[in-house]
Each structure stands twice: as C-alpha cells, then as structure tokens.
Amino acid sequence: MTKEEFYAVATPGKFKSIADQLNDDERDVFKYKISKLCVEQLVNNFDIDSNPTEVERLNTALECLSIIHPYSHRIPEYGLAYKGRPDFMTDELLSKLQQEATKFREEAVINLEQFITCAETLDKSSVAETLEDMQELNDLVEKHAGKCLPSFISNYIYYDEIGHCSKPHVDNGFTAVTVMIALKHESNCNNLSSSSVAYWPKKIDLITNSSQESLQFSSGQALFTGEHLLAKRSVYTLYC
C-alpha cells in the first residue's frame, strides 16, 4: 500500500479490525509500517510539519497506531503511564546504578545513534538485575500501567556523543511497557538539553504542537511508556 492509498482509506476502526485478526508477530509488522508513515510526516526527524495537510496526515497515522495494539485501552495520553522519582530510588541505589553504568560503558556497542550494553549477568549479580527483581518496581508499574509480566531484560543506553539520539519509533509487543530511568543528565552547553519526545493523536495546535510532548528528566527519575511513537532527542549531552 502506498502512502497515498493509506491516507485514502485509513480510519482507526478499520485498522483495529485488521489488527484484531493478526497474530503478535504480524501485528508488530503492521505497527511498524504505520509508525514509518508517522515518521515520514515529521520534519528534521522529530518535529511536526507546519503544513496543515501534513499535520492532518500525521494525526491520522497516530490515531491508527494508537488503537491497533492489544493494550490500547490501558495506555494514557502520550503513552505516558508514570513520570517521577520512585520512593525506592534512594541516593544509594542511584549511585550504585551510576557506577555500574560507567563500568558497563566500556562494553557498550553502537546501535544506530546510541550506545547500548546488556546488564544481564550469569549469576544475576548486577545492580540493574537487582532493580528489575524489586517487588517495589513491579508494584509501581502495575499501579500505573496495569498487570504486567516482567521481561527481565535490562540495558544501559548511552547518549554521550554529539548527534546521539533515538529517532521516533515504536517498540515491539514484547516490550509493551518500558521502564526508563535517567541515571545522569548533564549538558556541556547552556541552552538545549536532551529530552524524550512522545507523540499522540489529538487535535493539533500548530502553535503549540500539542500532539508532541517533550520530557526532560533529572537523575533518578523514571518514565513508564506504552506502545506508542517515542523518540530521544539529544544535543551535546551525557544521558545514560
């Protein structure tokens, strides 16, 4: 289906009916194709076009994207279930995570425009694994995002070189809810800093770009997101 054909027939209800007939792998492919259409409507990788026709097309694609996954009824506006510093994120735990992230940085490999390393160990001795096993974390996720099964996958992601970012994308169904915790957020310039960017279907205000939400985090803060279009914009920052 071409882009023109998609926008000629696209309605959330129609695409929900199609998605309901797909298995999990097929649904992920379907989701990916629609997310690519969303990305094509953005300018400079992250920003909403000022052209009203392109804005309407973006909103249509976002509406279809937001409704086709099986947890659509549980995902709040912008896909953001929680933002804040959890009570269990003590200064001591944060310090241990920061130290471990620094140690794992040597093992990180480039993945598109970011560095990433897996924090899994054979004996489950890493601080990240201790965190993922915490009942307090599981309770907090379920309080804000509903019943979930932990994936037990922990990664450290580093945006510590000029140009590092995570372009708009949608995670697969296996990571239907993602917990992100900022460990360090430092900038070597005095104006712009890195931010996460969430996109959500709604009546778009061309002045405020109300379908685009930029979120900045301080060390120790956590963000829970659902399956929606999300990006990480980084400008001269260290963010891991």
Note the topology.
Blueprint: H1 3-9, H2 12-19, H3 24-40, E1 42-43, E2 47-48, H4 52-67, E3 80-84, H5 91-104, E4 109-111, E5 114-118, H6 127-132, H7 135-145, E6 155-158, E7 166-169, E8 178-181, E9 185-187, E10 195-199, E11 212-215, E12 222-225, E13 230-233, E14 237-239
Helix pairs in contact: 2-4, 3-4
* Strand count: 14
CATH 2nd-level architecture of the largest domain: Sandwich
| Rg on CA atoms, Å | 18 Å
**Arithmetic mean of pLDDT:** 83
Strand order of the largest sheet: 7-13-10-11
Report the major sheet.
4 strands, antiparallel
User: How do the SSEs run, as a string of H and E?
Assistant: HHHEEHEHEEHHEEEEEEEEE
What this model shows, in words?
The model is unreliable at about 235-240 (pLDDT under 50). The chain is α+β, with helices and mostly antiparallel strands and about 240 residues long. Helix 2 packs parallel to helix 4 (about 50-65) and helix 3 runs antiparallel to helix 4 (about 50-65). Strand 1 (about 40-45) and strand 2 form a beta hairpin. It is globular, with a radius of gyration of 18 Å. The strands form 5 sheets. It has a 4-stranded antiparallel sheet with strand order 7-13-10-11. The chain has helices at about 5-10, 10-20, 25-40, 50-65, 90-105, 125-130, 135-145, and strands spanning about 40-45, 45-50, 80-85, 110, 115-120, 155-160, 165-170, 180, 185, 195-200, 210-215, 220-225, 230-235, 235-240. About 35% of the residues lie in helices and about 20% in strands. It folds into 2 domains: about 5-75, no CATH class; about 75-240, Sandwich (Jelly Rolls).
